[in-house]
Amino acid sequence: MYQSIKEECFECNLLLPKLGLVLFTFGNVSVADRDKGVFAIKPSGLPYEDLSPDKIVIVDFDGNIVEGGYRPSSDTKTHAVLYKHWEIGGVTHTHSTYGTAWAQSLRDIPIYGTTHADHLTTDIPCAPPMKDENIKGNYEYETGIQIMDHFDAQNLDYKEVQMVLVGSHGPFTWGKDGRASVYNAAVLEEIAKMSLITEQLNPSVKRMKKSLINKHYERKHGKNAYYGQ
Predict the structure, then answer these.
(1) Nearest C-alpha neighbor of 172 from the set 96, 64, 86
(2) pLDDT of 71 higher than 90
(3) Which of 10, 68, 165, 167 could bridge across to 129 with cysteines, CB 3.0–4.6 Å?
(4) Residue 124 and residue 154 in contact, taking contact as beta carbons nearer than 8 Å
(5) Closest by CA position to 63, among listed 161, 166, 151, 141
(6) E strand or H helix at 25, and its extent?
(7) What is d(CA 194, CA 9) in angstroms, rounded to the nearest whole number?
């Protein structure tokens, strides 16, 4: 009964090494079936070349195993928190080089150009590092809370801003399904790379002007959008 999300989860996880977003097993994708209240996620530490749909683990929105013979990703409880509180269909977590570098620098990624503005009208947010008492507690669960708390504090809408850096950790992205979350992970990584190079070329660079941000975002996502077929 979970075959569809197992196959999508399998295919999405294989995209991570293909897109250069992971090294070894440094990442995972999950795919939800919201009607059934479950999600499919990659097994913990399993090499991508050994992955198959039948090895994908099914978990409920509290992080409990529903089906599968493998231990799910160590990040499962973070995914579970986001599914339980947000209306999303897929989550991707990576330690991609440029995105993680920005997370380790504890900086938002400023909006410098139209590639960024095609996807967001804001900087890519970086949540602050977790407090010590939370680290000592249910760490992966608290990571999900950390993300949501930062969105609340910054008055960000998760439906519009579908990506975040967790300070000293790495990127998390989400979307309507697994493929959308992987797409957002790739976009985040490319923007992170471009932004770093931009600051190296011009250390005093300013954020792009609001009128240009709005133009590029609205032509793709606004009510009168005209990008694409």
Answers:
(1) 96
(2) yes
(3) 167
(4) no
(5) 141
(6) none
(7) 29
Which active-site residues does the annotation give?
Answer: 118, 227
The pLDDT score that the predictor gives to residue 229 is: 86
User: What's the mean per-residue pLDDT of the chain?
Assistant: 97
Among 30, 54, 59, residue whose Cα is nearest residue 42: 30
Amino acid (1-letter code) at residue 113: G
Residue tagged 């579970």 (tokens)? 80
Question: 107: closest CA among 147, 164, 66?
Answer: 164
CA distance 198 to 200: 5
Q: What confidence category does residue 217 fall into, taking pLDDT thresholds of 50, 70 and 90?
A: very high
CATH number for the region 3-221 comes to 3.40.225.10
Residue 45, token pair as written in the block: 């530490």
Residues 6 or more apart in contact with residue 76 via CB below 8 angstroms = 30, 41, 57, 59, 63, 140
Sequence letter at residue 31 = V
* Overall average pLDDT of the 194-198 stretch: 98
Both tokens of 199, joined, read 């600051």
Cβ count near 76 (within 10 Å)? 23
Q: What is the pLDDT of residue 103?
A: 98
The angle formed by the CA atoms of residues 9, 119 and 169, to the nearest 5 degrees, is 60
- The pTM of the full predicted model, rounded to 2 decimals, is 0.96
Q: What is the pLDDT of residue 106?
A: 98
The closest of 176, 78, 32, 212 to 184, measured between CA atoms, is: 176
Q: Which of 95, 57, 74 is nearest to 185 (CA)?
A: 95
Q: Are 88 and 170 in contact (CB under 8 A)?
A: no
- What tens digit of pLDDT does each residue of 12-30 get? 999 999 999 999 999 999 9
